[in-house]
Each structure stands twice: as C-alpha cells, then as structure tokens.
C-alpha cells in the first residue's frame, strides 16, 4: 500500500534553527498554526515600519556613535523581518504584504522616545507569540527576537538619558563648526555639510534666545544675516548636486540663562564659525565655494564684533 504521507519540509530560519511548518504526518497544522498567523502578520508590519523609521532616525542622529548604533539596530530588524516573512510564507503559502503601521517622528528625540516605548511593547508581544507557538523553532525565533528588542530598548533609553547639557556637548564632537574643526580630513561635501549645520545651529540658538528674552535687536539683525548664509550654501549644494542636510539643530541648543549668557554664546559660536571657514580656506576649493566661504567668514567677523560689544555692556555695568 502506497503511503499518502508527504515528505516533511524543513526550513532554516535567520537564527539557524530548523523550521518545520508541517505536522508529524506532513500536513499543515492548520488549527494550531493559523492561531498565530495574524500575530506574525502584525509582527511583520511592525518590523517593516521599524526598518523605515530607524533609517530616518539614524539620519537625524546627533553623533556618529548614535547613528551607527541605530543602523545596527535596524539590521536586527531586517533579520527579524526576513525570519518572520519566511515563517509566514511557510504557514500560509503566501507572500505577506507589509505596511507601515505607525508614523515616524520628524524629530530625533521624539522618535527615540517613541522607539523606546515601541521596543518595550514589542518585547512583550514577541514573548506572547513564543508562548502561543507550538513549533519549537518558531518559539526560539521569537524568543531571540524578543531578546533583541529588549536590547534595543536599552539603547534607546541610553540615548534618552542624556541631559540637555550633555547632549549639547556630544553634538560638539561631530556637528557644525566643532565637528569640522575636529575632523582629520574633509571633502568638499563634508565642508558644505558642516557649514550649513553650523548655520542651522546659529538659527536655532537665536530662535531660543528670542523666545526667552524677546527681540533683542542684535540677535534679530544677525539672525536675518544668517538666513542669507544658508541661502548661499544651499546654492552650492544644488550646483554641485549634493543633498541638502535636514535641519535638526534645535534639539542641540540650550537656552541661555540670561541675556549676558546669550551674548557670550554668540561670541563663542562666531569664534568657532570663523575658525571653521578659515580651515576650509586652507584646502583646494572650487572658486565659487572659496568666494562664499570667504564672504561668510568675513560676515562672522562682523557678528563677532557685535556680540562682543553687547557682552561688554554687561561686563562694564
């Protein structure tokens, strides 16, 4: 008598565990497996959304360390997505149709906060799937994925734990003028990126000062001038077909405690800005870029003098 049993199909998931979507007699365990198909579909959508969102958050990250770690977390999510997709296909015989299940914030800190909460919820959700699953390899896949998600939550909590002062200090390492001054080498695109970051930073600083202390004319006039600096740099980005960096400088600015401190911050910012452009001018540059960098350096010299006069009024009083 010919056996009606099918050969058992074995599959290896992303964690190296053998996955058998069939029962011992070779037929689909429809009742038991279908009970978690919806959960796996939800998990796939969650991973798909995280992959997209973490790419955005990495671009917004204030430091290279944070950016690299978020990219590593994103790679974990890609592994999860591929593993869950494979399980889903074997259980249903269909390719999933993933969709974004939640929007991603345009602001770094808000995005990190949302990611921390989501990773905690996802950890619990994956443990729930682990408990439901009957196939041991599915259990192990979601157990390890849950451990990854918990580790991600710890990283996001770490990024959230910096007080504002510490975050601003970290920003000094690789953002704006100080990033340029710390760089051991610079490409032309690097120079444009650091330059526009520093102009964004100045705008954010003046916005914070004006919100706190009102429209002090020195800051109003210089802020208008800084807007023209951004326009000049944008022209170079466009001309040389470089992508214009997004402006996320506001999250790295600390509002000064007093008007005197605001002038002092202005002095420090202009000193760094001038030093940055002087460093750029030591390199071989396109002639139009050399002209723009020189003009912006000279404008910053004027701004520095204005801030020093404002600071002197407080020191003389």
Automatic annotation (TrEMBL):
Domain Rubrerythrin diiron-binding: 113-168
GO molecular function, one term: oxidoreductase activity
Gene3D superfamilies: 1.20.1260.10, IL-4 antagonist (De novo design) like domain (1.20.120.660), Immunoglobulin FC, subunit C (1.20.5.420)
Xref: InterPro entries: DUF2202, Ferritin-like, Ferritin-like_SF, Rr_diiron-bd_dom
Superkingdom of origin: Bacteria
CDD domains noted in UniProt: Ferritin_like, Ferritin_like_AB2
The name this protein goes by in its record: DUF2202 domain-containing protein
Taxonomic source organism: Halobacillus litoralis
